[in-house]
Amino acid sequence: MNKLELQKMAVEVRKNLLIGLHAAKAGHPGGSLSAADIFTYLYFEEMNVDPKNPKWADRDRFVLSKGHTAPGLYATLALKGYFPVEEMVTLRKLGSMLQGHPCMQYTPGIDMSSGSLGQGISAAVGMALSAKLDGKSYRTYTLLGDGEIQEGQVWEAAMFAGFRKLDNLVVIVDNNNLQIDGEISSVCSPYPIDKKFEAFNFHVINIDGNDFDQIDAAFKEAKATKGMPTAIICKTVKGKGVSFMENQAGWHGKAPNDAEFAQAMEELEKAGEALCQK
Amino acid sequence: MSEVKKIATRESYGAELVAIGKEYPNVVVLDADLTKSTMTCFFQKEFPERHINCGIAEANMASIAAGLSTTGKIPFMSSFAMFAAGRCYEQIRNSIGYPHLNVKIGATHAGVTVGEDGASHQCVEDIALMRAIPGMVVMNPSDDVEARACLRAAVEYEGPVYMRFGRAKVSVINDYPEYKFEIGKGTIVKEGKDVTIVATGVCVDSAVKAAEMLAAEGIDAEVINICTIKPLDGELIAASARKTGKVVTVEEHSVIGGLGSAVCDALAELAPTPVKKIGIQDVFGQSGTADQLMAFYGLDGEGVYKTTKEFLGK
Fold this sequence. Notes:
heterodimer, A: about 280 residues, alpha/beta, Rossmann fold, two-stranded antiparallel ribbon, about 45% helix, B: about 325 residues, 2 domains, 7-stranded mixed β-sheet, 5-stranded mixed β-sheet
């Protein structure tokens, strides 16, 4: 996809994740929106996957380590064709294929169950290691929250990945600067994030994670990097694309009411229309 | 009487892993800096590429095992029971149990027979923790023969399995031609009519010894070996309980949540029967030799004999 197509798709991802959250009356919009451009890029540009064959053995893998932003991933998977977008309104409801946090047994396209922070990166390391053991060329991607990296297990995984030179692994950090209790820098600062990954023998790239040019360049650089895993630290805006949700910790884990939903959808419709004028 | 062969079940784990590794190319073994204690060093020597030392980072090891299994590997993650079941409980619950992944957990150094290291390393809660996870198979072999059979069964079974092994050398008691192992099936080691002694792991040997002492006094005990604590062979235990009317359980584990609790769960529904639970009585262990600790906590033959006799009012 070209940049404009990716931008348009990202608007659709944002709309659909909000449709899900609004119907569910619960969930995590802030981090889903901040990562929407990353989700879009991964599934519509970067990853070698086949929605008609979600368990294809040689596919690229994605582990959503920050599992609470499942609505963003679900919307992306639906738009990619893993399941109908109409499923989004069943999010978090009894009997739904769309559980509150990702579960690989419920949802086609989910490569690993996650939700308990810090564990997904290790699972991704296991997948990347398996590819190395078998001489396979598939790549593994994992997305972490910036609050999530306060979990010690993240650094156990980083140490292992760096030591094992897993250059088929890309760790993406969604650095929207907010966690439930406020700014990450005031709760328990993980900064400097880039220097930490560097110290664990990662190739580190700092980008604006809501800018497709920078996202594109970073993933190309990651693919060209040999002998070490890559960490892409993405500065993002929590709640990106919905004016009243942007940079508000309060929108970490609550759903929009009817009026808020209507306003958010209107804003996104306008953004989509503006892109169509280009 | 000839000398009984004694082998620690962790040695069985290490040795059988090598045999399994030869037959199953997708088996990989993970360890966390304890290869010479868990005995995965044998596998490491034979298959260096397929042995993954994660360093002292058990939580990462558990989730890496989960990731490996999603790609078709059969990972055996190995550590002491304290760290495998204890430290990694939540990784096992969420990253292995919830998605029902094909990960095998080899937990060595379970129970008080860890010995001199003391309570910090004597896990007597692991069966309770692992039994509570939906879909988890929990096995606690009694000797070398059974430990090897557990590994065989585990590798052929699709899904998460917790296997519990010991540090101390234990008598080989299942070395007879008719021995057959099946997940979820208990074994009647000795038939009897006066009391049922249900034992697991190293305590099966104690139960057999206790039964011999009881027999000398005219008490005819039935001894059941329960290797698979989950799924439990409740029917076998209930049938015996209906016959004898009294049940004693014996385990090198807390009486809260382990074999005794599992047996009570089953009997409450199938055949309500008075039960005496022998095990660690809601306390932490302590330093000592394995034999001393087994005796101190009443888990050796003598202890099981005495408690059973008291329970029978004799």
